[in-house]
Structures are given as C-alpha cells and as structure tokens.
TrEMBL record:
Transmembrane segments: none annotated. It comes from Oryza brachyantha (malo sina). The keyword Secreted applies. The keyword Signal applies. PANTHER family: OS02G0527500 PROTEIN-RELATED, OS04G0494800 PROTEIN. InterPro entries: DGR2-like_dom, Galactose-bd-like_sf, Pectin_Meth_Modulator. Keywords: Cell wall, Glycoprotein, Secreted, Signal. Residues 1-29 form the signal peptide. This is DUF642 domain-containing protein. Its main location: secreted. It is found in: Secreted, Cell wall.
C-alpha cells in the first residue's frame, strides 16, 4: 500500500511538472501593454530558489530561464551597493550567458516594438542580445540617462511567424558569474507608421507612432542605434550611432511641441536621427521642424543641426528647462530620387543631477516648393 501511495504521489508530481511546463511554454497573445508577468511581480516558489538564484527552468511564472538568473527584491544590496528596482517590488538579474524567454502569439508580417527597463550592476559597459525568432538585435547598456540608474529601452522587429520566442540574453563574461544587468517591465506594441502625404513627404514626422511607454514611468524610452537592415521602433526614422541613443518622450511627463510624442536628442553628436524621402532631382523643397526643450530641467544653449541634400541649418535654442519651442526651416534642392534628412544635437548638455539631456525635436515636415510660389515670394 505504501509503495502504491508513493507511485500515485510520484505520478501526481510528474503531471504537475508537465502542467507547469506547458503553461510556461504557451504563447502569450498580446499586442499592446505589459507582457504576462512582464514586471516579474509573480514570484518563484521558494522550493525553486537557492538564496536569490532561481533554480527551476520554469520557476518564474510565464517565463523560461537558463543560466545564472537571480530574483532581486527592491532594496536588496550587493556589497555596499543598493540594487534598485524600477517598478514594483521585484526584478531579474542575468549573469554570464543567462537568458529569459517568453513565447508570443503574433500576426505574421506586422511590426512590433518591445520596451523593457534595465540597469548595469557590475560592469561599466554591457549589452543585451534580444531575439524574436528569427530576428535578433543588440541593445547597448552603457550610458545612464536617468538619476535613478534605470532606463527603458526599445527594440523593434517584424513578426515572421505566428508563434515566436522573445529571448533576452546576457552574453557578458565577467569574473563574477553573478554580475550582469537587472531587467524589468517588459511591454509590447504593434507599430503602424502613418504614410507620407502631399502635405508632408516625411513619414511619422510628428513622432506619434513609436515604442510603448509605460504609463507609470517618467523617464521616457531610449531608441538605441541600429544596423542598416534593422527595423526601427520609430520607423521609418533610424538612429545612426555606435552606442548612444535618442529618447522618446510623451506629453504626460515632458513638454512636447505638438501632439502626444516627441524626441529628445540626448546624446549630442553621437546619435543622429535620419529618414530618407522620395524627391525629384532639381526640384526645390522646404524642411520645417520644431526645436525646444522638454521641460525636464535641461538648461543651457541647445542647438539642432539639420541636413537635407546639400543644405544645412543650425538652429540654436536657449533653454530655461521649463518647456517651450520655436519653428525652423531649411530650403534645399534635391540632387537625387532619395534625399536623406538628418537631425543631430550639436552640444552635450547635462542636467544638475549629472544626466544627459538635449533639445526636443517635433513636427518635422518636407514639402515641395512650387515655382510660382517662389516667384510670388
């Protein structure tokens, strides 16, 4: 009888483990907002923990892990350093070669942007590999843009399948296997870039379409540089640079010249915002845009340099850090069928807390100048 009871209990445990495994591997069907347990507030069972280290592959609800993964509580210390958590009470730390993954149900052919928060712990320069099978990219976590030490990052991809694995992997190799970035708050958004029109040859010139911004965060979302073939969270705008980013900001927390979204050029000359438009060689065009400050305490002499074809203009803006903007323009003559429009901040500016900031850019448009209008002017 005892052996029979043990067999029944063993069978029950196996069934339970199988159910946990299936639940962890089922695809999440969500196209906007926080992913299931995206902020890691649903905790692992204590039986699958060794101190802070998570020992069970499916111990964190809705996630699958591999490698050295820690479950970190708010206020926890590493030596003399306090490990911050950006949202809620818990976050996850990834050691060398550690990964977390979650399966997503998507619409093939659609574009998506993933937003997540991260911070360094040990190393001075870290990066994360992000995969949405079969798409893969890199997000550098080097420069800190907030006084809290946390930043939100975005990464975009095209859904190639209806069921994909979102994988975040730390490829770092350090002396301490526990060293690695803290990650938290994963959200997703389906991207639908507004088309260009005769009134504006630029697409998404007002930056209204972009990565998901968590409503309870006040630090915006970084859009990091990308390879030429990557899809941008601000598509069709791309960010040219090596490791530096631009910041996507919302009207709920920043001063935005128009609409609900804008871009703050926070990395000086190390990150440029670029888009190519269709033009007719020999025809004249006008580029217009707004330059100001985001009302985030960024005080000083800000400036944006704009380029289009062979023309350029430098637009200075004296910021008091409380909001405001001015309108600028550049007339140019197209020399080819595709003209690259480029915006870059010409100065490195810091707020009193030592974090990087810069001019806010919004409401960019390119229109053709008709010959009779030029004559009348």
């Amino acid at each position: 009888m005892k052996r029979k009871i043990e067999m029944v209990q063993s069978t029950g445990c196996v069934r339970l483990l199988l159910l946990v495994s299936v639940a962890a591997q089922s695809a999440s069907a969500i196209s906007y907002g926080l992913l299931p347990n995206g902020n890691f507030e649903e905790a692992p069972d204590e039986s699958q923990m060794n101190g802070t280290r998570v020992t069970g592959r499916y111990a964190i609800p809705k996630w699958e892990i591999s490698g050295f993964v820690e479950y970190i509580g708010s206020g926890q210390k590493q030596g003399d350093m306090l490990l911050p958590v950006p949202e809620g009470a818990y976050a996850v730390r990834q050691g060398n070669e550690a990964s977390v993954r979650q399966r997503l149900a998507l619409t093939p052919g659609m574009h998506y942007s993933v937003t997540f928060s991260a911070t360094r712990t040990c190393a001075q320069s870290e990066l994360l590999n992000i995969t949405a099978t079969p798409e893969i990219g890199e997000v550098p976590i080097q420069t800190v843009y907030t006084s809290s030490g946390w930043d939100s990052y975005s990464w975009a991809f095209k859904g190639k399948r209806s069921d994909v694995s979102l994988i975040v992997h730390n490829p770092g190799v350090t002396d301490d296997a526990a060293c690695g970035p803290l990650i938290d708050s994963f959200g997703i958004k389906t991207l639908q870039s507004p088309p260009s029109t005769n009134d504006n040859l630029l697409e998404n010139g007002g930056f209204e379409e972009g990565p998901y911004i968590f409503p309870n965060t006040s630090w915006g979302v970084l859009v990091p540089p990308m390879d030429e073939d990557d899809y941008s969270p601000l598509s069709p705008w791309t960010i040219l640079g090596y490791t530096k980013s631009v910041k996507y900001v919302d009207a709920a927390h920043y001063a935005v010249p128009g609409g609900a979204r804008a871009v703050e050029l926070v990395s000086g000359m190390e990150a440029a915002l670029v888009q190519e438009v269709s033009t007719v060689p020999g025809r004249s065009y006008r580029l217009e845009f707004s330059v100001g400050d985001a009302g985030d305490g960024c005080v000083g002499s800000l400036s944006v340099q704009a380029y289009a074809s062979r023309g350029s203009v430098k637009v200075p803006y004296e910021s008091q850090g409380t909001g405001g903007h001015s309108r600028a323009s550049l007339e140019f003559t197209a020399t080819s069928k595709r003209t690259r429009v480029v915006f870059v901040s010409m100065a490195y500016t810091m707020k009193p807390d030592g974090t990087l900031c810069g001019p806010v850019l919004d409401d960019a448009l390119v229109v053709a100048i008709h010959s009779h209008r030029r004559f009348l002017l």
